[in-house]
Amino acid sequence: MTEPTVVVHVYGVTDVGRTRDHNEDAFLVADLENAKPITFSSEQTHVPGEHGALFMVADGMGGAAAGEIASSMAVEVILTELRGRWTAGPGTDPKSFAATLHDATEVANDRIHEYASDHPENRGMGTTATIAGILGDTLYIAQVGDSRAYLVREGEARQLTKDQSLMQRLIEAGEITAEEAEVSERRNIILQALGPEANIKVDITHQQLRRGDVLVLCSDGLSGVVRDHEIARVARETNDLVSLCNQLIDLANESGGPDNITVVAARFDGEGLQPPSADDEVGHQAFAVGEATPVTAHPAIDPASPPPNAHADELANVLSAAPPAADPSLFPALQPTGVRRALTPADIEAARAAMEQAAPPKGRKRRAAVLVIAVAAIAVLVFGLLAYLRAK
C-alpha cells in the first residue's frame, strides 16, 4: 500500500532593496533525497522523499564583500554537510535529522570563523541562518541570529523562531514590551551569528505541519519593516507563491527598503498531512538535541530588591572587565551593514552614566536601572567580542 504523500509547492527570491549597492543575503531550497539545490524561474512542486527537504535564508554582514561571502559559505557548507551526513545515509529518524541540522550549522560556524581568521580583511564577518527541514509531516528549524520563520495557518501568521537579539532578551525578561522594542535605538543588535565567535548556541525547534500551511522564511530586510499581520494578509489573498514573495518584497521596498530582502515561501499539501485543528500548537517549540553547546556566560540579574549601590557595583565590575574599545575608523571593513549595527562605545558610556547616579533606584527608577544593567550586561559581551576582533 502506498504511503500518503506530502506535496511541497515552493518559491524563493532575493532583492537588493532600495538603499544597498549589493546583496549580502543568500537562500537555498533543496530536495534532500539528492541534496541538490532547486533553482527558480517559477513556483516549483515536488514530493519530498524519505530524507525530506531543506529551506534556508542567510543574511550576511561585515562590510565590503564579507557579508556576501559569509552567507554564501553558510548555504554551501550546510548543504554539503547534509549531503554527507544525512542524504548519504539510510537514517530517517527525526532526532537524527534535527541533530544533523544542528551539527551542520555548527560546522558552518567553524568554517566561516576559520575563514575570517585566515583573511584579516574579512575579520568580523558573519551571517544569520534560519534553516528549516521537513521530514514526514514535521518541520525542524535551526536558528542563529534574527532572520525569521513564520507559519501561516488559516489566515494567521505565527513566528516559529525567536530572534537571538538584545531586544528579544529584554522582552523575555519583562523589561520592555514588543512595541517598545520595535522603536528602540538598540533594536538591531544581534547576540549571535555564524562566524564571529568560535562557539555558538543553535536554537532547534519543531512544528507539526497541517494541510494548507504556508511557511515563510525571510531576512530582516522584510521582518524589520513588514509586520506579521501583513504577511498573513498577503498569504490569505494569493495562492500563487511567486506573487506572494514578490508582494512581500514590494511591501518592504515601499517602506524604504533599508536592507536586502529575501523571502522563501512553501505551501504544504497532500494526503500525508492532517487538516488544521483547534487543538494545534503553533509557535516556538524547543526540540532538545544532545548536549548544550558551550557559550559565553552573561551576568545574571537578580530580581530581588538590592541593597543600595549593589547594581552600581555589579555594573562597574562588568564594565571594568570589558576590553578597551578600538577606534572604529581604523576598521572600515567592520562597519555595520544592513539594518543591524554593532555595539558602540556610546552604549557603554550611557550605562556608565546611569550607574553613577547617586540615588538608589526605587519604583520606576529601580525598573529603569535594572533595564540598564540588563542591556549593559548583554551588550558588553557583544561589544567585547567586537573590540577583540578589531584589536587582533
Write the layout of secondary structure elements.
Layout lengths: L6 E9 L9 E7 L4 E2 L6 E3 L6 E9 L4 H22 L6 H25 L7 E2 L1 E7 L2 E7 L3 E6 L2 E4 L6 H7 L5 H6 L19 E6 L5 E5 L1 H4 L4 H10 L3 H14 L6 E9 L40 H11 L24 H11 L7 H29 L1
Antiparallel strand pairs: 1-4, 1-13, 2-3, 2-5, 5-6, 5-7, 7-8, 8-11, 9-10, 9-12, 12-13
Structure description:
The strands form 2 sheets. Strands 2, 3, 5, 6, 7, 8 and 11 form a 7-stranded antiparallel beta sheet that branches. Strands 4-1-13-12-9-10 form a 6-stranded antiparallel beta sheet. Strand 2 and strand 3 form a beta hairpin. It folds into 2 domains: 263 residues, Phosphatase 2c, domain 1 (4-Layer Sandwich); 82 residues. It has 10 helices and 13 strands. By secondary structure, the chain is an alpha+beta fold.
Briefly characterize the structure.
Strand 2 and strand 3 form a beta hairpin. The protein is an alpha+beta fold and 392 residues long.
User: CATH homologous superfamily of the largest domain?
Assistant: PPM-type phosphatase domain
Q: Which segments are poorly predicted (pLDDT under 50) over 5 or more consecutive residues? A: 292-345, 357-366
Instruction: Report the total helices.
Output: 10
The overall strand count is: 13
How far apart are the termini? 62 Å
Could you estimate the helical fraction of the residues in percent?
25-40%
Task: Supply Rg.
Answer: 22 Å
What is the overall silhouette?
Answer: globular
The oligomeric state of the chains shown is: single chain
In the CATH hierarchy, the third-tier topology of the largest domain is known as: Phosphatase 2c, domain 1
CATH class of the largest domain: Alpha Beta
Structural class: alpha+beta
